[in-house]
Fold this protein.
Amino acid sequence: MANQDVIIDIRHLSKSYGDKKVLDDINFQIRKGEFITLLGPSGCGKTTTLRIIAGFVEASDGEVLLEGSDISGIPPYKRPFNTVFQRYALFPHLDVYDNVAFGLKLRNLPEERIDQLVRRALKLVSMSDYESRDVDSLSGGQQQRVAIARALVNKPQVLLLDEPLAALDLKMRKDMQMELKEMHEKIGITFIYVTHDQEEALTLSDTIVVMNEGRIQQIGTPTEIYNEPQNEFVADFIGESNILNGTMVCDRKVNFIEHEFECVDEGFGENTPVDVVIRPEDIYIMSKLEGAQFTATVKSCTFKGVHYQMFVDTDKGYELMVQDYNAFEVGSTVGLFIKPFDIQVMRKPRTCNSFEGEIIDSTHVWILGESFECRETSLEPGTKVKVDVEFDKIDLQDHQEEGTVDGEVHFILYKGNHYHLTILTAHGDHIYVDTQDIWDKGDLVGINIAPEDLIITECND
């Protein structure tokens, strides 16, 4: 039986353009009256999802249910939704009043009813005194209010907002965020919002859907997303974080930066590799060393308006970001303390690279679309194998032609004393690399792996 609180149910939604899959089995529900935000970097699939909901794009697979009924075949103009775009899409030849009234006039409503609805909508967006103004004479924020009023005047069940504040300057964007939040509370209809701005999502939303590379990474409230990220992408994308390699010693005890800490996490097993997330504001910094869990040297101290942001080198050689209301002198030795409930432990998505392959001959294996030299093996040619490679055994070259395989730096994560890179190869494979070298996202690299670093296991099936 359908949940009466659910207005939109997204089931197994996928979308491909040729060989490129931009959405991969997306599933989530939207409650009536909810402010839900699709959040992620450019190209993650958030706008495609919104356009499928609106009916502007047809899904390759899956369905969109509105109050339990599939609306996949219903054209956009027959769906009870209205969309607010980034570029407003106002009619320059019409004044503010007629822009808002446009959809009502198409429905042939009586003039008196149109006037009543337009004035109510303009009052809602604080534009009551602008009815006769030319839209080109308005500021960006005022134009966006008119666009929102035009969308709301038709009383849609759902308002779709595609990065509506992206074209505004910082101050105006923050002002409009608060106005949007107040509008949502007053109107009570469902808002589906798309943005790449993490702060905007945290400020506005009841629920956030974090997306990356066409997949949902996490769904939760702003507090859950910020305080309990489920993977390294979410932890890195949402706010500032220290993301570190760790080992879960046992329940409620974790080791990272070569120190052992009490924590509140359980169920990871014993001596299990994990990722640890510490928000910079959750590291307590003090001048006195007595009572500190570990010590560090202040490398830099920058005033950020509300707090100071410092980078410190710990006594074991790890770099951490710390935020505090007090400044500490560069070069000084400080004590640091982290409380158990401020340590977020996450399961590692992987502990090494693992590739599917096939034996070519006694000293060569086929992986990543190429032939790699390996240690001598007795496995027969054609044998299907799994090939494991440690993260720090991948050798990156500055020039693509110097590698057996070439790729592009796709994602960079700093882990306190090294960088963890995601390399996307020309064949679409992901390779994960631990390195001390500094690379930039988008760098083109050659990839080599020494024969002795390919750990080959015959596939049982």
Observations:
- The helical segments are 46-54, 96-106, 111-124, 140-152, 170-187, 198-204, 222-227, 232-237.
